[in-house]
Design goal:
The protein contains ten helices and eleven strands. The protein has about 300 residues and is of the alpha/beta class.
Amino acid sequence: MNVPAFIPATAAPFFPPQHIPEALQRKIVAATVNIARALQVKGLLNIQYVIFEGEVFVIEVNRSSRTVPYISKVTGIPMVNIATKVMLGQGIEAQGYPIGLLPEPGFVSVKVPVFSFGKLHLVETSLGPEMKSTGEVMGLGKTFALALSQGYSAAGTAVAERSTVVATIADRDKEEALPILRGFHDLGCPIAATAGTAALLKREGIAVMELNKIGEEDKNKQNLLDMIGHKEVGCIVNTLTKGKNPQRDGFRIRRAAAEIGIPCLTSLDTAKALLYMMRSLSAGEVLPLVSLEKYLDKDTVW
């Protein structure tokens, strides 16, 4: 099976960059240097950028972030120690480190958030700009797919091979979701969906089991909440409709999944990343179990 060439951009923070052109990387470096000099920063600096239509925009600038220890681990550079000495007047070169960007490592690392929604009843599980994660784990691998697989496994969101994927997709997202759901189907994952999504899949020739909506009593269809409760689902792809009312079907589906421990993806970008990972693993990519020191060893041959 051929692994697709694309790499999803927003599955989770990862290093080194996998999808940013070199010219844009140079632009980001130049902007970072200019901002640091303008603000007269000595020590650590964290900047969040967004790239839109080939242009780089700054979201926010702050002193540090939770990403620092992760980057320190995967580069072997003790950033906090170096930054502290810089703040006390000792330059980077004086500490034995070069100025500028270091060469990219021969592996990929990914930082995957961990949530505690199962313990927080009636809390909406869909994500927005506010921080909802209660922890993070790191995945490492020689490819993006393998790193993501390790990270998902450590975060408790691994999806079993050929397990059922349930789709409840808002109308505005159906066109974008169609190739993703077709991809899961082609991997041998049974697809189950509520009426609107099921109708779309049937029109496109994709086998699908149509489910009852919550509250429906059609005996010829299985109940979605029963499937979740009986752990007959590998993951759920659920894009948001109107609002986050606890009485709405979407909210109840997401809460049921959280309390049972079934991955529920509310972002199609994350679903694309999961599909990419599963395709890569099904094509024969194998995750070697080696120490972090082995990853950092420049003589390691994969």
